[in-house]
Write the structure tokens for this entry.
Amino acid sequence: MISIPYDHPNATGCSTLEAWARTPSEPDPAEKTALIARIKQLLIEQDAVLVSHYYVHPDLQDLAEATGGMVSDSLDMANFGHSHPAKTIVVAGVRFMGETAKILNPEKRVLMPDLEAECSLDLGCPLDEFSAFCDAHPDRTVVVYANTSAAVKARADWMVTSSIALPIIKHLKAQGEKILWAPDRHLGSYVQEESGADMLLWQGSCVVHDEYKAKELIALKTQYPRAKVLVHPEAPRAVVKLADVIGSTSQLINASRQLNTDIFIVATDNGILHKMRTLSPHKQFLEAPTAGQGANCVSCSHCPWMAMNGLRNLAQVLETGSNEIWVDPAIIPRAVLPVQRMLAFAKQISLPVRSIGNV
Ligand code: 13P
Ligand code: SF4
């Protein structure tokens, strides 16, 4: 593997602290009931469907499922929004998820509870520097993670999500292609090691997953010898190496349900625990240890941008039509190509694409 020293600061837009300051406060039970009822009514009136990620507030995950929408990983979110007939897609997640929905469905309205909900990987991969990286390596196939802007996708040959990155890189390696990869260095080095592909890696990272610590995880495993360790591949390599299962959020949830053990250590955003505990109420789920001192986020195993999504701002965008995702129409025809390539590949290899109730 060749790795180059592209060392980007994580958050340059709405920083993690600014994001935490925008976290909606919890409505009291009466307000919550009223908001849920209002949102259900507005979704019908607006011909809208709610698509939530597993890291957002449990209320928004449950509401998506209760109203005929979906809670899922980023691959299934893209698929579901694309195949659903609703004229408006409401994305409870982060901006790149809203942009992917818009790129795939330019004729639809895509709304988000908070347009400032970003992602450190996206923020750490600005178009001008990424373009220079691509220009310097014209012989390489450009593969970008979903967690990038529409403009960066428009420079790529392929888009991947965590659930399909490894099969796609193996496929490209079999074609004899050399890869330019961006932006997550941990996911990049995981797929590089697993596939043996020749990859140049951008050095981005996720503020949440970067915090998991191998030494402390080994200590926790010693304390709970029966526990199986579930790790998202955005975590550092030393942590991924300790995993029993490595996968996207949906794949980790599947494993938590299917594995015949009653205790798990989970190294991904703790928003995922809601679905894991709902599906397996008799099992115990422990959060993997994070950095604590010296952390670049607040090291709480929760994404500050995902936390910006709440019932109040969801009701408000449905009420007013504000917070519509805008992607430059001039770049959509180019940006859609790597996304469509990934979706076609997923279909071809029959990667299970989930439907509601079938996690
Ligand atoms: P998944 O595709 O696994 O849901 O990951 C999205 C993400 O942002 C993880 O941090
Ligand atoms: Fe981005 Fe990390 Fe948040 Fe996922 S958890 S959206 S990778 S900052």
